[in-house]
Design a protein that fits this description.
By secondary structure, the protein is α+β, with helices and mostly antiparallel strands. The protein has 2 domains: 127 residues, Diaminopimelate Epimerase, Chain A, domain 1; 150 residues, Diaminopimelate Epimerase, Chain A, domain 1 (Roll), CATH 3.10.310.10. Helix content is 22%, strand content 35%. The chain contains 7 helices and 18 strands. Helix 3 packs across helix 6. It is globular and about 55 Å long.
C-alpha cells in the first residue's frame, strides 16, 4: 500500500466552499487506471484530476468521475493550476497533455488560470422545444421566446453540450429536471449534458447565468462548468448573439441554485479560452491499496 497526497480545490471562485469542488492528486505517476478510478470514487466529487509526467507536454492530466474517465474537465484543470500556483509555479504559459490533445494553460500573477479549449464544433439539432422543455421541467414558451435568433445546438470545445437559451432568470431557477429524460436526450444527441442559460443575470457585469445537467455522466447538476462555458462562448459567437460587438471577455454566473456560486471567464478569439481562480479547501492524504483487485481505500 502507498499513501498519497490528495486535495479538494474549489474552482471558479476565490472563496472556499463555493464554486465547483475538484479532487486533485498532484503526483499520480505510478497509479494504475483502477487505482485512479477507486480514488475518484472514494473522494466522491464530480471529477478528480490526476497530474502525471508527460513526454509531450509540461505535464499530463487525466480526469475521473466516481464512475468513469472523462476526456476533459475545466474546473478540475483550473483547480489543478490553482494548486500549482500555491506551490510556487511561476506565471506564464505551460502545456498540458489531455485525452483531447495538448492544450495551453496560462497562469497569471494573481492566480487566474486560463485554459485553452479545443477547436469549436457546433451543430444545430432537430429536437422539439416541447421535448427539451419536458426534460428540463420548464415551460415550452420560455424556450421558444429565447430562441428567435439563437437556436438549440450541440456545441463543443472539448466536450459536447446541448445549449439551450431560456428567457428569464426566474424560468431558469424554476427548472425541475427529469434526469432520466435528460439522459435519454443527451445520449441520443451524443452530448455530455444540457447547458441551460439566460441573459437575465444576478450581477450587472455578468453576461449570462447558466445551469448544467449531466445525469448520464453521474452529475445531476454541476455547480460551475468550465467545458460547458467554453462551448457556450463558441455557440454565442457562431450564432452572432452580440451582432458585431462580441465582448472581449464573457462573465458567466453559475452554481447559485445549488448553493455553490462561481464565475467563469471566457474569451473567444483565435482560440476559446476559459478562465477562473481556485482555492484549496482540503489538503490531506489517502491510503491506496496495491492494485490486486481490492477496491477498498482507507482515509
Amino acid at each position: 500500500m502507498k499513501t498519497i497526497r490528495v486535495l479538494q480545490v474549489d474552482a471558479f471562485t476565490d472563496e472556499a466552499l463555493t464554486g465547483n469542488p475538484a479532487g486533485i492528486v498532484p503526483d499520480a505517476d505510478g497509479l494504475t487506471d483502477e487505482q485512479m478510478q477507486a480514488i475518484a470514487r472514494e473522494l466522491a466529487l464530480s471529477e478528480t484530476a490526476f497530474l502525471r509526467s508527460s513526454d509531450d507536454a509540461d505535464r499530463r492530466i487525466r480526469y475521473f468521475t466516481p464512475t468513469q474517465e472523462v476526456d476533459l474537465c475545466g474546473h478540475a484543470t483550473i483547480g489543478s493550476y490553482a494548486h500549482l500556483h500555491d506551490e510556487g509555479l511561476e506565471p506564464g504559459t505551460t502545456t498540458l497533455e489531455t485525452n483531447v490533445g495538448v492544450l495551453e494553460t496560462e497562469l497569471e500573477a494573481d492566480g487566474t488560470v486560463w485554459m485553452a479549449q479545443s477547436d469549436p464544433r457546433i451543430r444545430e439539432v432537430e429536437v422539439g422545444y416541447d421535448r427539451v422543455a419536458d426534460a428540463l421541467g420548464v415551460e415550452t414558451g420560455a424556450l421558444e421566446g429565447a430562441s428567435d435568433d439563437i437556436p438549440l445546438a450541440v456545441a463543443s470545445t472539448g466536450l459536447s453540450f446541448l445549449i439551450v437559451p431560456i428567457t428569464y432568470l426566474s424560468d431558469l431557477g424554476a427548472a425541475d429536471p427529469d434526469t432520466a429524460a435528460i439522459e435519454e436526450l443527451t445520449d441520443e444527441l451524443e452530448a455530455t449534458g444540457i447547458y441551460l442559460f439566460s441573459f437575465d443575470t444576478l450581477e450587472r457585469e455578468s453576461t449570462l447565468h447558466g445551469r448544467m445537467f449531466a445525469p448520464g455522466a453521474g452529475v445531476p447538476e454541476d455547480p460551475v462548468t468550465g467545458t460547458a462555458s467554453g462551448a457556450v462562448g463558441a455557440y454565442l459567437d457562431r450564432f452572432g448573439a452580440f451582432d458585431d460587438d462580441f465582448p472581449e471577455e464573457l462573465r458567466l454566473e453559475q452554481g447559485h441554485y445549488v448553493d455553490r456560486p462561481g464565475t467563469v471567464l471566457v474569451r473567444v478569439g483565435d482560440r476559446v479560452r476559459v478562465g477562473g481562480r481556485g482555492v484549496t479547501a482540503l489538503d490531506g492524504s489517502l491510503v491506496v491499496p496495491d492494485d490486486d483487485g481490492d477496491e477498498i481505500i482507507e482515509g
